[in-house]
From TrEMBL, chain A:
Residues 4-34, 50-81, 82-111 form the 4Fe-4S ferredoxin-type domain. It comes from the Bacteria. InterPro entries: 4Fe4S_Fe-S-bd, 4Fe4S_Fe_S_CS, ET_IronSulfur_Cluster-Binding. Pfam families: Fer4_11, Fer4_2. This is Sulfite dehydrogenase subunit B.
From TrEMBL, chain B:
Coiled coil: none annotated. Residues 46-102 form the 4Fe-4S Mo/W bis-MGD-type domain. One of its GO terms (molecular function) is oxidoreductase activity. This is Dimethyl sulfoxide reductase chain YnfF. Keywords: 4Fe-4S, Iron, Iron-sulfur, Metal-binding, Molybdenum, Oxidoreductase, Signal. Belongs to the prokaryotic molybdopterin-containing oxidoreductase family. Its EC number is 1.8.99.-. Pfam families: Molybdop_Fe4S4, Molybdopterin, Molydop_binding, TAT_signal. The keyword Iron applies. The lineage of its organism: Bacteria, Bacillati, Bacillota, Negativicutes, Selenomonadales.
From TrEMBL, chain C:
Coiled coil: none annotated. This is DMSO reductase anchor subunit DmsC. Keywords: Membrane, Transmembrane, Transmembrane helix. The chain crosses the membrane at residues 6-27, 39-57, 77-97, 109-134, 140-165, 186-207, 227-250, 262-283. InterPro entries: DmsC. It comes from Sporomusa acidovorans (strain ATCC 49682 / DSM 3132 / Mol). It comes from the Bacteria.
Length: 191, 893, 291
């Protein structure tokens, strides 16, 4: 089985948020909607003993995606690569999927009245290109690939980072596949 | 539908008189170009044009996707050696800036009262004629010096266009809000002490950090945050170095991304950097961990200085190409001995000590430096700078124990009156450790192609056009002669001259940049001056707060409309005009057209500017932009057209270009080592030549100017910020917090506040407040607060964070285009420069005023300022309205 | 999560409809009492379900694409809509049977099928929110609360109908009194059950994984939701209706007529029903709300 997903190296990420704008440009994401947001975690601790890192938030490409399970119309679905997508023609805008997503990374487009989210830029990957945010990231902190394929970019960076430094968002049975690399030298991972 | 088919003339008529931000009400919505596109858009073809961004001082490589003449997508160009295919948020937002519905589209003339915002469209001809006439009249009545101009900082690629025009017009008065407050302290200190480039990453220097193979081991980011000031290039390079294990120290009051990732973070009290530098210096000298050989042979520290005159002892005439011969104290013979360049192996000079030479008390430069640093123990620095002693020591150790490396100095220290001294301090700290021109160090003099010779700018300032008599009238420069390096006047002196009429009254202001209220210190102080001016021209891409006070508005081109060669490392690129909209003009062309008008009206000096013979090696003023482009690319033996076909290309193979140890190489003319670009060819740590600068203007003038009131100091000294928070300060009782600024990655100075994608991310300015202070002053996270200094009061949104020290607050500049048409004209609500300080004390050498490190207080506010937009949806009104290219206007004018 | 008003009214009216129908069938068919309310209560149940159903479509961005749901019978929305439809259909059949004077056994059978469907619907209404993503909702107690809320609303709604239709002849006064006291008892029991479930729910919130201030007991008891909890749920949902019920038709009930008292009681539990749903949405933060 293949599971395409994103890995973000938070040791590298400098919180410049150009990935947010790259995503907006590539995907025509409307004002007020977000498919990708860079959050500042921290500063934690007490000045001047503080830590801070930037968490790039986007769909975690859950293996057992609750958003798909609750979708009444099949608008939300998993494609052959394991990417969760939304068929905008089928979406009735009930937003149950937004409730079901443990991370709140889906967004409701008030103009088209359907739910949207990161597509891993499937349209670009289909023509052999990297997703917009990956390609544009100044610090090359973002990677996309099949995490089940040991030869993929994502599998390799994770392998290199070592399991102690690879983190995922909390799993409530949905098995998020996206991964974050963060060494404790940069900051301690906050669950 | 009928509106859509209005022809061009009808459309223009229909919009004859309009408010400055008329597009708010949608009156520009159906531009004729859109109508035409709707009819003619059948063939669709996307081409990709290689160009370069200019939404900030970097020039990142861009691939512009153009479909049917319209820009539809921007991507980074992976070939660009600094940004390597990335663009930052500002660069990506280029489309929204280009097609902004509120672009300045045509020249406009004011028809209502000043500030009333009533405008009428005029032709370029009319605009140029009107301006030229006004300039000539003013010159006739009051002298050319009554006309002054100003420009924007690094953002404007045609920076030197403004001084060039002023020199041609024979007015000495132009200024820039950066300059003494930005970069000049560094270019001056590095220029005079080293003769090479400074170490500003944000200004695309520190070329060593872009090389994958650099052996650099440690990087000190002193008052700079590449993550935010140049994310796509420098920020990325620094991230790469960290990933490779390079150690970093960050000296910054604010917890920036770079600070958070640093090995040591020194959150220094704003404005106290020189004290810390002197402490580092003292430690390094004391512990003798400096590079002894290098300091001895390649700096001027062993040279003897007469303690009364502060001048170095020298013997013998210098002849062409060789420097003066200086004296050292030879410990073998216990006598002063001349040491001819480059070195004399028979001597054993003393580095330290006081000696009597022919009855005169002398000390070595080293001795003087040591004495200067003597008071600054680590403990003392910790006390002054609000730092931890152990952390300071740890930072110094990281720096001194991991060679090679270097200190990159940012803009922070340029923005207080201790500016020049801080830049000198960094040259010293780099030099003491021998971090100069070795592989892995930041001070380098790699060769340049010559296509953009002056800090990467293509227009030359033509300084010889300005007459000697006029230069002497330059406001503020006699006292602060460091300004001569950039040939600029001092903004505060210009302001005072307008207000007092002394020594004479400037009357006409030509301004070409964004929002001066947002970038000049104590901006409200300019209002009474503006009210007294006869005539104001504003040239920019869209209306800003400043436009409301102007008499004529001129439409400048966005970066996607302009052309110029761009150099990065050993490669050449081209900014190419991807489209052209409305009647915008490249300002590099505008100034030449204005000069032409003046020449035609009988201005002798302007005529000279068009005379190839007089201009010599410098290109005379151009009729066509291409003339200048061709001149630039002639440095690589090409016409512009051929050049644009070839880019990108290496003007020199990388190996050859990375020309380390230039100072050691043999100068073919003299047979001696090239040395450094200073009079002594040594690193002039003891900056004797600054004394001469203050007394005469040398080396920047060929004729003597009257001396400054006091000699400049050849060694760095620390000056406590004028508005001090320390005990005993009366002011601190009322204004207890130290304010500072620093970049955010979404805006460039005053620009882009009208771009939906960016305002969505950062809609209003934050003020960072430590939790302890938030309790003390009763404000909570996310709440609106008043921020107040002696000079004014604004609002900001509280960000309560442990990322800043108690007693310090941080905020960046802001204005709101959405309130342009209100009484505030968008600059009075949340503009941190209403609080900053533009009066004395100034930096003695350069005239720097205080943008960072002054005192403020905060209190809870009842809410956001009136009329500002907070929600993403509100910015919809500014979504781009793409339109088809229009023919260039230059041919018509 | 922001308060989804269409869903608040959807579940409120569906709950009211279910409660009313179940109450009516139990009273009239199972216990053979107050048969005069069969028609009106069925009609009210249908109308409530209708309003609820309509209200839910207000929540949809594209109600016109609703038929797409037919292909996905396991989804919450599909189950809810199907069950509303089935329940509505059953009630209509029941009504027809009543009109046509079908046999008691037939009416009882149809009614009972309706009861099963209605209880299930009330449960499913709450069950749709049980999801691992939202810790405060991720418990079986939540659908139980929906059922309890429907039951309480049902008791009061039947009480009101009865008060308006009861026959106070001397001949039937005893019978009416018996019916009334049954309702009284039922109401008090359901209120008690609701109280217990509510406490259980608080316990769930206290021990739910991924604790967060947005869904903490302290936010409910003393934080910015305290007014909703104490005022809405406890006072209007439990105390007021209980007191009103105790006094309902009590000999020494003074100053307040039975009509008024039962009507106030219904209003009170309806408001409490709304408040409960508001509270639920207010607590409905995801494990991590990243945007
Ligand atoms: N309080 C406070 N004040 C500050 C600072 C601070 O940190 N704090 N920073 C200071 C510094 S470092 C500087 S450099 C100054 C900058 O202050 P200014 O120089 O006044 O800034 P802008 O005018 O916004 O910058 C010039 C703008 O020109 C635009 N531009 C680009 N190309 C062209 C062109 O071809 N023609 C024209 N006409 N315009 C073009 C760009 O958008 C660019 O942003 O502000 C200073 N002011
Ligand atoms: N996004 C963006 N990029 C820009 C610009 C912009 O406006 N926006 N402007 C361009 C220009 S013209 C310039 S000059 C460069 C500047 O680029 P940088 O030199 O990197 O400058 P800043 O971010 O202004 O300041 C650097 C840091 O200094 C810290 N600081 C403040 N006060 C002090 C102090 O007293 N001492 C020390 N040691 N640190 C202090 C601030 O917190 C800030 O993080 O950026 C360029 N790039
Ligand atoms: S573009 Fe890259 S470095 Fe910038 S915020 Fe996004 S992930 Fe981080
Ligand atoms: S909003 Fe659209 S995608 Fe989400 S659950 Fe409803 S129908 Fe499916
Ligand atoms: S992260 Fe959310 S949207 Fe993405 S697959 Fe998981 S549940 Fe669905
Ligand atoms: S992969 Fe594509 S859709 Fe997803 S965040 Fe990146 S740019 Fe946006
Ligand atoms: S750093 Fe950003 S704004 Fe500056 S040139 Fe590069 S892409 Fe453009
Ligand atoms: Mo600057």
């Amino acid at each position: 089985m293949s599971q395409r997903t994103m890995v973000v190296d938070l040791d590298r990420c400098i919180g410049c948020k150009s990935c947010e704008v790259a995503c907006k440009q590539e995907n025509g994401v409307v004002l007020g909607c977000t498919w990708n947001k860079v959050l500042t975690v921290g500063p934690t601790g007490t000045y001047p003993q503080v830590e801070m890192y930037f968490l790039s938030a986007m769909c975690q490409e859950c293996k057992d995606a609750p958003c798909v399970k609750v979708c009444p119309t099949g608008a939300s679905y998993k494609n052959a690569d394991g990417v969760i997508l939304i068929d905008k023609e089928k979406c009735i805008g009930c937003r149950y999927c937004m409730m079901a997503c443990p991370y709140g990374v889906r967004t409701f487009n008030e103009e088209t009245k359907v739910v949207e989210k990161c597509t891993l830029c499937t349209q670009l990957q289909a023509i052999g290109e990297q997703p917009a945010c990956v390609k544009n990231c100044p610090t090359k902190a973002r990677f996309v690939g099949d995490i089940d394929d040991p030869n993929s970019d994502v599998a390799k960076v994770i392998q290199k980072a070592g399991s102690d430094n690879v983190h995922g968002l909390p799993d409530v049975g949905n098995h998020p596949s996206a991964r974050y690399i963060l060494h404790s030298k940069t900051a301690t991972w906050k669950e | 539908m009928k509106q859509l088919v209005l022809n061009r003339r009808q459309f223009l008529k229909a919009t004859a008189v309009t408010g400055i931000a008329a597009a708010f009400s949608g009156s520009f919505k159906t531009g004729f170009t859109q109508g035409e596109a709707a009819q003619g858009a059948t063939a669709s073809e996307t081409k990709i044009v290689k160009t370069n961004c200019r939404a900030c001082v970097a020039n990142c490589g861009v691939l512009a996707h153009v479909k049917n003449g319209r820009v539809v997508k921007l991507e980074g160009n992976p070939e660009y050696p600094m940004s390597k295919g990335a663009l930052c948020a500002k660069g990506l937002a280029g489309i929204q800036a280009l097609y902004h519905p509120n672009r300045n589209k045509y020249p406009m003339i004011r028809v209502g009262k000043r500030g009333e915002n009533k405008w009428k469209r005029i032709s370029w001809d009319e605009a140029l004629d009107t301006i030229a006439k006004k300039l000539m009249e003013t010159r006739e009545k009051y002298g050319a010096e009554a006309v002054f101009a100003s420009t924007g900082g690094g953002g404007n690629p045609q920076f030197w266009s403004v001084p060039r025009f002023c020199n041609a017009f024979d007015t000495p008065n132009w200024f820039e809000p950066g300059c003494a407050q930005c970069y000049l302290p560094r270019t001056l200190a590095f220029g005079m002490m080293y003769g090479g480039a400074d170490t500003s990453i944000a200004d695309s220097n520190c070329l060593e950090i872009y090389d994958d193979e650099t052996p650099i081991k440690t990087l000190i980011l002193w008052g700079t945050d590449p993550s935010y000031s140049c994310p796509a290039g420098g920020g990325a390079a620094v991230a790469e170095l960290r990933a490779k294990g390079v150690k970093t120290v960050v000296i910054d009051p604010r917890l920036t991304p770079d600070a958070a990732k640093a090995d040591v973070w020194l959150p220094i009290r704003p404005g106290t950097d020189v004290a810390l530098m002197l402490a580092w210096t003292r430690y390094i000298l004391d512990k003798k961990i400096y590079d002894q050989e290098f300091v001895m042979k390649w700096t001027n520290l062993p040279y003897l200085v007469d303690v009364n005159t502060h001048m170095m002892l020298r013997v013998g005439e210098h002849h062409d190409g060789t420097p003066d011969t200086f004296m050292v104290w030879d410990t073998k013979t216990n006598s002063a001995q001349p040491v001819s360049y480059p070195w004399n192996d028979r001597l054993a000079p003393a580095l330290e000590g006081s000696f009597t030479v022919n009855g005169v008390e002398c000390k070595t430069g080293f001795q003087l430096l040591k004495e200067r640093a003597e008071a600054y123990t680590l403990e003392k620095a910790a006390e002054i700078c609000w730092l931890d002693v152990n952390k300071i020591e740890e930072a110094i150790r990281v720096y001194t124990q991991n060679a090679p490396g270097g200190i990159s100095l940012g803009v922070a220290t340029d923005q207080n009156p201790n500016s020049m001294q801080a830049a000198m301090g960094v040259v010293i700290l780099n030099s003491l450790m021998g971090n100069v021109e070795k592989p892995g160090t930041l001070m380098q003099r790699f060769p340049m192609s010559g296509v953009a010779p002056l800090f990467g700018y293509i227009v030359q300032p033509g300084i010889k056009l300005l007459s000697e008599g006029q230069l002497k009238k330059r406001l503020g420069t006699i006292e602060h002669k460091g300004l001569l390096q950039w040939w600029a006047a001092q903004p505060s002196a210009v302001l005072q001259a307008i207000l007092t009429g002394k020594p004479y009254k400037p009357r006409v202001w030509l301004e070409r940049s964004g929002n001066k209220f947002v970038t000049l210190g104590n901006s409200s102080s300019w209002i009474p001056a503006i009210e007294q001016l006869d005539f104001i021209v504003h040239m920019y891409m869209y209306p800003t707060s400043f436009s409301a006070y102007a008499d004529i508005l001129l439409p400048a081109q966005e970066w996607l409309e302009t052309e110029m060669p761009v150099e990065s490392c050993n490669m050449l690129f081209a900014r190419q005009a991807v489209t052209h909209l409305w009647e915008t003009m490249d300002e590099g062309l505008f100034w030449s057209k204005l000069a032409k008008r003046c020449a035609d009206m009988g201005h002798e000096n302007c005529k000279k500017a068009f005379d190839p013979e007089f201009m010599g090696k410098d290109l005379p003023y151009w009729d066509k932009w291409e003339d200048l482009l061709n001149k630039c690319t002639s440095a690589v033996n090409m016409k512009w057209e051929e050049y644009t076909q070839k880019i990108p290309f290496e003007f020199m193979p990388k190996k050859k270009w990375k020309n380390y140890y230039l100072y050691k190489q043999t100068d073919l003319k003299t047979g001696m080592p090239v040395g450094f670009g200073t009079p002594s060819k040594k690193l002039e740590i003891y900056l004797e030549s600054i004394i001469e600068l203050g007394r005469t203007g040398k080396p920047f003038t060929t004729y003597p100017l009257p001396p400054a009131s006091k000699d400049y100091d050849p060694l760095p000294y620390f000056a406590e910020p004028h508005e001090s928070p320390l005990e005993g300060s009366q002011l601190a009782k009322e204004f207890p917090l130290v304010m500072t600024n620093g970049r955010i990655p979404f805006f460039h100075h005053g620009t882009l506040r009208n771009v939906p994608w960016l305002r969505e991310i950062y809609p209003v300015p934050e003020i960072w407040i430590n939790p302890k202070d938030s309790v003390k002053y009763g404000v909570s996270h996310g709440e609106w607060v008043f921020v107040e200094s002696q000079r004014g009061k604004i609002r900001a949104k509280a960000n309560i964070t442990e990322g800043i020290r108690p007693g310090v607050v941080y905020m960046e500049r802001f204005w709101t285009p959405e309130t342009l048409d209100t009484d505030t004209h968008g600059w009075q609500e949340m503009n941190v420069n209403i609080l900053s300080k533009n009066d004395a004390p100034f930096n003695d050498v350069i005239g720097t005023y205080t943008l960072r490190g002054y005192l403020v207080k905060i209190s809870k506010a009842d809410g956001p300022p009136k009329g500002i937009w907070l929600k993403p949806e509100e910015f919809k009104k500014w979504l781009p309205e793409p339109s088809d290219p229009t023919p260039l206007v230059d041919k018509e004018v | 999560m922001s308060i989804q008003w269409p869903l608040v009214f959807f579940t409120l009216f569906v709950g009211l409809g279910c409660g009313t129908f179940v109450g009516s069938v139990i009273l009239t068919e199972w216990y053979g009492k107050a048969k005069q309310i069969r028609t009106i209560s069925s009609l009210i149940a249908i109308v409530a379900l209708g309003i609820g159903g309509l209200s839910s479509t207000m929540h949809l961005g594209h109600p016109e694409r609703m038929f797409g749901a037919l292909g996905h019978p396991t989804s919450g929305i599909f189950m809810e809509s199907t069950m509303i439809f089935l329940l509505g259909l059953t009630i209509i059949i029941y009504l027809l049977a009543v009109r046509r004077n079908a046999s008691d056994a037939t009416c009882k059978l149809i009614g009972t099928i309706g009861v099963v469907l209605a209880v299930a619907l009330a449960f499913v209404n709450g069950d749709a929110y049980v999801m691992a993503a939202i810790p405060a909702w991720n418990t079986w107690i939540l659908p139980l609360l929906y059922v309890a809320s429907a039951a309480v609303m049902g008791c009061f709604s039947i009480g009101v109908l009865l008060a308006h239709t009861a026959n106070y002849d001397t001949a039937t006064i005893a019978e009416t009194a018996a019916t009334t006291s049954m309702i009284k008892r039922a109401a008090l029991i359901t209120i008690a059950i609701q109280a217990v479930v509510l406490v259980a729910y608080l316990v769930h919130i206290a021990i739910a994984p991924y604790p967060d201030v947005t869904r903490s007991v302290s936010r409910i008891l003393v934080g910015n939701l305290a007014l909703f909890f104490w005022g809405g749920l406890v006072l209007l949902g439990l105390v007021v209706p209980a007191v009103l019920m105790i006094k309902f038709y009590t000999k020494n009930a003074q100053g307040i007529s039975p009509h008024t008292s039962i009507t106030l009681g219904l209003a009170s539990v309806l408001v409490a029903g709304i408040v409960f749903r508001i509270l639920m949405f207010s607590l409905g933060s995801s494990i991590k709300q990243l945007f």
